[in-house]
Specification:
Helix content: 25-40%
Order of helices and strands: EEEEEHHEEE
Low-confidence stretches: 129-137
Distance between the termini: 5 Å
Number of strands: 8
Mean pLDDT: 87
Number of helices: 2
Radius of gyration: 18 Å
Length: 137
Amino acid sequence: MEVKRVCNKCGEVNSLDSKSLLKKDVYDEDKKHYVILYFECVRCKEIEVVQIDDNESIQTFKEIKALFIKAMRKRLKKETVSPREVKKKDRLIKKLNEKRKLLNEVSKGKTFYDENGKIFIKELTIYTGGDIIESDM
């Protein structure tokens, strides 16, 4: 799948796919660990953050992933997925979305450092508006 996003700095249309999206472990001023998903603009080399996670949201994502794998195995065996598991999945997805939204809000304007203590992002901004141009599924 490919998604196109417009750079907030120069307006370049960037194609995002599994090769252009990068993952980085970063730390804030309080040494709290985060994992960011980002891309680098092909024209101006600006780092554009797409998603930010902390240890709690990563753990929630792992739980959701395990539920999906379990459901897929059941479906391959022609078994049904229980309503209880579906409710749990829905609850976890809602929790993850809320956590990521909160992380976006509390991280705005923060400086993030890489594992060597060098500044990776001076002031984090995550643009969540309508900047997706098109997507291929």
